Each structure stands twice: as structure tokens, then as C-alpha cells.
Backbone:
């Protein structure tokens, strides 16, 4: 599979680390399951991923159900646990001190751009910034990735606000607005609404 929609290798190296640390049988158990299900995906996942290099992200819809099965979780429970694990890994690194020195308002201004640095799509457009209320749209999201990314936006949003000294009081995503087809893939705009208060 080769598409125009890419993500940094940290996504896939994170998968390797997660399975090695959290799942009996480790990453080799995942590779065995992938080999039985999808040989091209097995070849893709068997490579060494470099964190800063961009790789095809359209494997994710096929990969996630296999990961969930190997982790012995429902897809929904797996996505929540895996994304929380990834958020802790990402945000407790270089961004930890920065987030603790800023306000939720300032953190939420910066985070959309940080998040989409992971991808070559999903350009953020800030719609509204008020104290306690933030609205941002992400354009050009492949429809097949919407559920996966909405889960990530929610978990990262809660985590960032918490680390910056706030508490999320409401989080919702508006119904997706279709943008048509880009590079043969249906894409849409997702708009995130987040309200918060200081702790």
C-alpha cells in the first residue's frame, strides 16, 4: 500500500514499544498475528521505523483490529488504552516542563500544530479562542481515519489541559463535513470543541 497520507515513524515505533511492554508475547506476537492476516502489512510492520521519517498511515484501519485482538481487548478499549499510553509517552518527554509552565489557553493554542506535525495532512484552523473555550478544525482528514483520530484528539486534549493546570468540562466533535476526494481518498473536516476551567 502506498498513499499520499503519511505519519511519522514514532506512531509505529510506539506500537512496537507498547506491545513489548504491555502485551504478553510482545511485538513478535503481533507480527505473527499480522502475518496470518495480511502479508503486505506484515512486511510493512517488520521494518525498522525511524521516529522522524514519514510512513504510510493508511495501514492503520487494518492494523488496529489485529492489535486489539492480540492485546485481548475490544477495539474501543484497545484504542483508549493504547492512545493513553502513547500520550503519556509523548507528553511526559520534551513537552512536560513546557506544559507545566504554561496555561491551558496557551497550551491549546500550540497543541493542534504539534499534533499535526505527526502527519502530512489535517491542517489545523483555529475557529475560536476564548478563556475556557477553544474550537479548532482539522481539514483533509481521511474518512477512514476519523474514529481513530477523534479518540486521539479527545485523549490528548484532556491530557494537555490537565498538565497545563486545567480541567476539561466539555469535549465534543462536530459531525464531519465532507471535503470530497483527495488523492482517491474521501476526506472531511473535523471540528473539535473543548471547554475547560482552571483547577
Residues:
Amino acid at each position: 500500500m502506498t498513499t499520499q497520507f503519511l505519519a511519522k515513524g514514532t506512531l509505529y515505533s510506539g506500537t512496537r514499544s507498547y506491545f513489548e511492554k504491555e502485551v504478553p508475547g510482545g511485538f513478535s506476537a503481533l507480527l505473527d498475528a499480522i502475518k496470518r492476516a495480511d502479508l503486505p502489512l506484515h512486511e510493512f510492520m517488520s521494518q525498522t521505523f525511524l521516529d522522524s521519517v514519514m510512513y504510510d498511515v493508511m495501514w492503520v484501519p487494518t492494523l488496529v483490529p489485529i492489535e486489539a485482538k492480540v492485546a485481548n481487548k475490544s477495539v474501543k478499549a484497545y484504542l483508549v488504552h493504547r492512545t493513553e499510553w502513547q500520550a503519556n509517552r509523548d507528553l511526559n518527554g520534551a513537552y512536560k516542563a513546557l506544559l507545566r509552565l504554561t496555561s491551558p489557553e496557551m497550551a491549546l493554542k500550540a497543541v493542534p500544530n504539534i499534533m499535526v506535525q505527526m502527519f502530512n495532512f489535517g491542517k489545523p484552523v483555529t475557529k475560536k479562542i476564548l478563556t475556557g473555550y477553544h474550537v479548532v478544525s482539522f481539514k483533509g482528514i481521511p474518512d477512514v481515519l476519523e474514529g481513530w483520530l477523534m479518540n486521539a484528539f479527545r485523549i490528548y486534549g484532556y491530557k494537555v489541559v490537565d498538565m497545563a493546570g486545567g480541567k476539561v468540562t466539555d469535549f465534543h466533535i462536530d459531525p464531519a463535513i465532507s471535503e470530497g476526494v483527495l488523492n482517491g481518498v474521501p476526506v472531511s473536516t473535523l471540528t473539535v470543541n473543548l471547554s475547560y476551567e482552571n483547577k
Notes: The chain has a mean pLDDT of 90. The longest strand covers residues 185-198.
